[in-house]
Design a protein that fits this description.
heterodimer; A: 93 residues; mainly alpha
Chain lengths: 93, 190
Amino acid sequence: MNSITWTKSPSFPIAALMAISLIPGCSDKPPMDAASLGRVAAEVEFVSPDEATKILSAKGYNETEFRQAVEEVMVNPDSAVLFARAYNSSSAR
Amino acid sequence: MNRQLTFFATVSLAVLCLSTTSAYALDPETLAAIHGAAAIGTAVSMGEIDPDVARDAVRSMKRDGVSNTVIGSLFKALAGDRTERTGRGMGSFVQDAHARGLRGRALADAIHAEQARRGIPGQVRNADGSIVAITIHDDHGRGPKDKTDHPARGHERSEEVRQDEEHRGRSDLAPRGPRANPHSVSRRRP
């Protein structure tokens, strides 16, 4: 069976979707809202590197993705207010 | 034998240095983004800066490649307006500078120049005078070891300020406690 006939098979779209879902970053993870980001930021700030990685990956992020999400918050004052409220209250505990 | 001992001692020393200097797990730029976002949110919620001005200022600075550390320190001065005698009125200064058309790195440099004029310490500059970073810890480079040894300890807001915030109903938005604003500039009054 050559590749052209395989792509015409009925199982091809299903297999393709499954493959895409396995690629990190293409998974269907819901993005964290600003308040959740603030809570997680307070949580990972002072833990060990391993613990921080574990916490972030449990939320579906690596550090770069997390930083990008926080940088998005920086340019959105409404989100930043929610982030600050969650971060400050979580930090004060 | 002596060589082995020297090697072992060197490796042990290196491991010890690494374990004591890396108090934070995250990359400095990630930390700066966290503290910057918290400072921006606090400054906006305290009414120190108009949200639209804040949005435009941060976007233009990011566009010009201004680091998270510098952006964060800039907004921390605004968020600290109620405790920093030197920082009072910085929000108005930023809004005036923005109204005069300053954007991006030029805006950041103008704000930091004003902070320096007011005696807010800790700026590190390039040879050309542009801002490299703000030294934020007041701990002579020791860095925090854990939650109980944080450089911001002792920088809590004064009773007068806390009462003022409670009166305004905004105390939930203000940074507080030892971990609230770890990158804040020195709280010492002149």
